[in-house]
Write a structure and sequence with these properties.
- By secondary structure, this protein is an all-alpha fold.
- It has a single domain, classed as MFS general substrate transporter like domains (Growth Hormone, Chain: A, Up-down Bundle), CATH 1.20.1250.20.
- Helix content is about 80%, strand content about 0%.
- Helix 4 packs antiparallel against helix 5, helix 4 packs antiparallel against helix 6 and helix 11 packs antiparallel against helix 15.
- It is globular and about 55 Å long.
């Protein structure tokens, strides 16, 4: 029995280590291209004034494709395991980014984003993988740790991309393709399967892979409804920021790829501090609900700052503070929401949930660049950000009334109670354990 437990512990440690490596590589690969993306697109746009629209169209196409396939890929991982889906998604990303780097015409970029979206199964599978290897009371914290590691990736990736852009605009794109290929190879040879055969579903129904059917079931569950609504309301304004901030930086404060890359690296540092350090402190004290609401408020403040930059006070320091506040709040609230939603479903539904949340996120990412681009061009540069503030205010109201089990907080209380019992058994006064905590 001891030998079996030791073997399982080693397997879990290896799985967690590989999950860390794959997450970091995935984020590095995704963010290397951020500083150069609008400049690559600009090469194939007839008029510079159309840049925001074309960047929005390309991201919307990617989001639409991911929206359609995420439930299928998530449920596929519930049926056959997480590993095959992660491998296929990595190969798809490698091919798509290589095609994007080759370019040659705007339609080639469109095709590359279609392929990228149709093979975007890594996020639902990684979401489910973490849930498979983590007990419920630790999931929010581990989602936070992965967020912190993503912060490291966001710090390293854009910095590399900004520096490589000085050599060639295409170089960061090809590096992204190479990183995806490395992920596929590592997953083939080193990634253990996390989903036990007894936890796999026997068949996949059409209703479970059709996005609107998945949404109907998810929103119909009391324990998921408020969180899913809040998740969607937050994803839309953050999508405005992700797809538009480099254009805003170029137009309002005349930044180039290097400055944009350095700011994105700063966002990574904030993610490390918030999700890697503060979440571990805050979750046991204020629970998932407290962390989520605090993070949402921080996002509202950050978006308001960016709106001010876009309208009346175009100062780099305001842009920097706003972006960092938005990123800090988004990282904290997302990790806590992921943990809370994961704890609300069974072990054989983690892929389904990952597909549902990623499909919803993809739907918002499809709409966000189109809305942001249209408002930015036709109304004002500040319009997408003020709309984002309004949506976040609604999200605060919805989430504050949502059904959320503060699992991390309850676990901390259980541990404290256990410590008191243990101390009493040893004859140590309870007051001593209270003083220690």
């Amino acid at each position: 029995m001891t030998s079996l437990n030791t073997s399982l512990a080693r397997s879990d440690k290896r799985a967690w280590t590989m999950l860390i490596v794959l997450t970091m590589l995935t984020v590095v690969g995704m963010t290397v291209v951020l500083p150069v993306l609008p400049f690559v697109v600009l090469q194939y746009v007839s008029h510079e004034g159309d840049l925001a629209i074309w960047v929005g169209i390309l991201e919307a196409i990617n989001g639409l494709c991911a929206f359609l396939v995420a439930p299928f890929l998530g449920r596929l991982s519930d049926r056959f395991g997480r590993r095959p889906v992660i491998i296929a998604a990595a190969f798809g990303a490698a091919f798509a980014m290589a095609l994007f780097g080759i370019g040659g015409a705007i339609w080639v970029l469109v095709l590359a984003r279609v392929i990228q979206g149709l093979t975007a199964g890594d996020l639902p599978a990684l979401f489910a993988y973490l849930a498979d290897i983590t007990p419920p009371e630790k999931r929010a914290q581990r989602f936070g740790l992965l967020g912190a590691l993503s912060g490291i990736g966001m710090m390293v990736g854009p910095a590399i991309g900004g520096l490589l852009a000085a050599v060639s605009l295409q170089l960061p794109v090809f590096l992204t393709a190479a990183v995806a290929l490395v992920i596929a190879i590592l997953s083939i040879f080193l990634l253990p399967e996390s989903l036990a055969p007894e936890n796999r579903i026997e068949r996949i129904s059409v209703r479970e892979i059709q996005p609107f059917g998945v949404f109907k079931e998810a929103f119909g569950r009391k324990e998921l409804r408020g969180l899913m609504i809040g998740f969607g309301l937050l994803a839309l304004p953050f999508g405005f920021f992700v797809n538009n901030f480099s254009v805003l930086a170029l137009d309002s404060i005349q930044w180039g790829p290097t400055q944009i890359g350095l700011l994105t690296a700063g966002v990574g540092i904030i993610d490390i501090l918030i999700q890697g350090v503060l979440l571990g402190i805050l979750l046991p004290r204020i629970g998932e609900r407290g962390v989520i609401i605090s993070g949402i408020v921080a996002q509202a403040i950050g978006l308001a700052g960016l709106a001010v930059v876009a309208s009346i006070f175009a100062q780099p320091w305001v842009f920097i503070v706003g972006a960092l506040m938005l990123a800090a709040g988004q990282g904290a609230s997302t990790a806590a929401m992921d943990g809370a939603m994961s704890n609300a479903v069974g072990d054989d539904e983690q892929g389904w949930l990952g597909g549902a949340t990623q499909s919803l996120n993809a739907a918002m990412n499809t709409a966000a660049p189109l809305i942001a681009g249209a408002l930015y061009v036709t109304v004002s540069h500040a319009a997408p950000y003020w709309l984002g503030v309004a949506l976040i205010v609604v999200a605060v109201i919805v989430v504050s009334r949502a059904h959320i089990a503060n699992t991390a907080k309850k676990d901390a209380r259980t541990q404290d109670a256990g410590a008191e019992v243990e101390a009493g058994a040893r004859g140590v006064p309870v007051a001593a354990t209270d003083a220690r905590s």
